[in-house]
């Protein structure tokens, strides 16, 4: 147990030293990045979670903006941006998708969005579309009946004058409601008398 404790203490001290060395190295790289005038952003190599958190801390102390990108833990990397070249939401989305940022393509997308918004505004200014179906319903059935057959059938068709009216002679039951109810009651009484 004492040997294990000594070994653990030695490993912890070694890890602490490695973290301090890594922090110093990152501070030097970040200061070089700040002094480089033509470089608005810098991408660092993939690193583990602890190293990324150290780099984020160093960037924050230096007054820079930093983001982590990548899907799995092994391929996640940090990008550091100068404050005056802070990334837009579109740029961050491109990096999150794993794409390279192209300002010309982003400008084209922005212009297309503006055109679409202007078209929507123009449509709203014209007012709502007139009510009714967007196309003629006859077109839907033209391939079945043709255009001339429907017109000819409409001219020859006559309405049935008795539509909706059923003559009394065609009805099965000609009794009134009262007569039907009286008959049902009489059958009930007869059954009750037979049961008794």
From TrEMBL:
<dbReference type="InterPro" id="IPR017330">
    <property type="entry name" value="SPAG7"/>
</dbReference>
<dbReference type="Pfam" id="PF01424">
    <property type="entry name" value="R3H"/>
</dbReference>
<dbReference type="InterPro" id="IPR001374">
    <property type="entry name" value="R3H_dom"/>
</dbReference>
<protein>
    <submittedName>
        <fullName>SPAG7 protein</fullName>
    </submittedName>
</protein>
<dbReference type="InterPro" id="IPR036867">
    <property type="entry name" value="R3H_dom_sf"/>
</dbReference>
<feature type="domain" description="R3H">
    <location>
        <begin position="20"/>
        <end position="83"/>
    </location>
</feature>
<feature type="region of interest" description="Disordered">
    <location>
        <begin position="117"/>
        <end position="138"/>
    </location>
</feature>
<dbReference type="InterPro" id="IPR034068">
    <property type="entry name" value="R3H_sperm-antigen"/>
</dbReference>
<dbReference type="GO" id="GO:0003676">
    <property type="term" value="F:nucleic acid binding"/>
</dbReference>
